[in-house]
# Entry
Amino acid sequence: MEATMPVRVAIGFYAGIYGRGTAPFSPCRARALLATEFVQSSALAKVVIAGTNLGALLVSTEQGHVM
# Structure
């Protein structure tokens, strides 16, 4: 996990500044840093993206921004 930290911080910073558009980086990141096949990288990215979307929805709901 320490090897991927700079990439995670960079993508998190980018997502925080610009919002959307970080999803295409996820399979590429997994492929490059974890040495996985493309299909496995894509599946892993979908799970991670679904988790972050669910987390954002839960936080937004808790703060009263979702009706």
Q: What stands out?
A: The radius of gyration is 13 Å. The chain is about 75% helix and 0% strand.
